[in-house]
Amino acid sequence: MTPRTPHLTAPATQSGVVTADEFNLWCALNGRPFNLIPNARPDGRLLWDVEVLPGTPRAGTVYSTNLGDEALAVVAGFAFLSGVEWAYEARAAETIAPPPASDAAVDAPEEVEDVLIPDAEDLPGGPV
Predict the structure, then answer these.
(1) Higher local confidence (pLDDT), 126 or 30
(2) Positive or negative torsion for Cα 73, 74, 76, 77
(3) Contact between 51 and 64 (Cβ < 8 Å)
(4) CA nearest 34: which of 99, 66, 89, 80?
(5) Which phi and psi (to 5°) does residue 76 adopt?
(6) Cα distance between residue 19 and residue 23, in whole Å
(7) CA 98 to CA 107: how far, in whole Å?
């Protein structure tokens, strides 16, 4: 049986677990300004966070997964990215002005109207 989505299956050398490094590489290759980074909490626990604009002075945590397991944090990171992309697309759809209902609803300038819509006396067989 062949898988339906072969592009989503892990290579045979992996157990199917995606690492934070792979998440970071995917973001870099796809123009997403995010990294998944481990952050030590005051109580000593190491939890994974999504950082925006990594390597710049404006870098900072935008989402904390609150997960210590790297594989689960990667899943949460991709879920965060999905939400960002969905919000971006939803916002773009709201800002696009709807087209007019039909071309008839648009008034043509008078000089164009004279060319496109001749007067009745100009038509062949029209009133003389």
Answers:
(1) 30
(2) positive
(3) no
(4) 80
(5) -65, -35
(6) 6
(7) 17
Q: What is the pTM of this model?
A: 0.59
Q: How sure is the predictor about 3, in pLDDT bands with cuts at 50, 70 and 90? A: very low
Alpha-carbon distance 64 to 36, whole Å?
9
Pairing mode of beta strands 34-40, 46-52: antiparallel
* 100: its two tokens: 């007019």
Nearest-angstrom CA–CA distance, 109 and 115: 10
φ, ψ at 65 (rounded to 5°): -75, -25
Q: Per the structure block, which two tokens stand in for 101?
A: 């209902």
Take residue 75 and report the two structure tokens written for it: 């899943």
| pLDDT 10s digits, 65-94 | 999 999 899 999 999 998 988 888 888 777
Please give the span between the terminal C-alpha atoms of the chain, in angstroms, as a whole number: 80
Query: Which amino acid, one-letter code, is at 36?
Result: L
Q: Give Cβ neighbours of residue 24 (< 8 Å, ≥ 6 apart).
A: 35, 36, 54
Q: What are phi and psi of 41, to 5 degrees?
A: -90, 165
Average pLDDT over residues 105-127: 57
